[in-house]
Amino acid sequence: MIKNNTQLSNTKKHLADFQNAKKKFEIDNPKDTLKYKIGINSFNSMIEDLSNQINEYENLQKDIVLMKARKLYRFSDTLIASRIAKGWSQTQLADKLGIDTQQIQRYESTDYESASYIRMIEVALALELDLEFKDFTIQKQTTKNKIVKIPTKKSTKNSKTKNVL
Fold it and tell me: What is d(CA 135, CA 144) in angstroms, rounded to the nearest whole number?
């Protein structure tokens, strides 16, 4: 997720670099090879991902933004996107909360991992977010239930996962 104009500028540069590299790859490699097909798929995937990030950030800059519901584990994205959609800088949010701008920068750079639950609620209230849970069901664990691994936000192949029914 792009969090500020500097990241937007960098992402646009990376997108242009990938588009140029794809063009060079298309010229330099025979189209009927497996290497070509895998390479083009890789370039297309990265170009699509960067384009989506740019579009998401630019859409948040519009006058009226419809925020889509997100899963609770993406709450940090909701806070960051809401700040951007309100047109607030990190400094403006920090002032509203009565804390240093650097603290907001740290929160956002780590996707609010270092923020307490109470601080995240304070941020949501400062942003005037109206958040509520929708109805959901809970199933008791039995031997028939399968435990599914949900990767944490910054997971890698060897990182921790959370167990969820």
Answer: 24
- Same domain as 38, residue 16: yes
Tally the domains of the chain: 2
Q: For residue 164, give the H/E element and its range.
A: strand 161-164
DSSP state letters, 25-83 = HHHHS-TTSHHHHHHHHHHHHHHHHHHHHHHHHHHHTSSS--PPP--GGGHHHHHHHHH
pTM (two decimals): 0.69
Q: What are phi and psi of 150, to 5 degrees?
A: -105, 120
Q: Mind listing the pLDDT tens digit for each residue in 30-45?
A: 999 999 999 999 999 9
CA dist 27 and 51 (Å) reads: 23
38: in domain: yes
- 40 Rama class: left (phi>0) / alpha (psi -120 to 50) / beta: alpha
Angle of helix 101-109 relative to helix 90-97, nearest 10 degrees, comes to 120
CATH number, position 90: 1.10.260
Place of tokens 């584990």: 73
Range of the domain at 38: 5-60
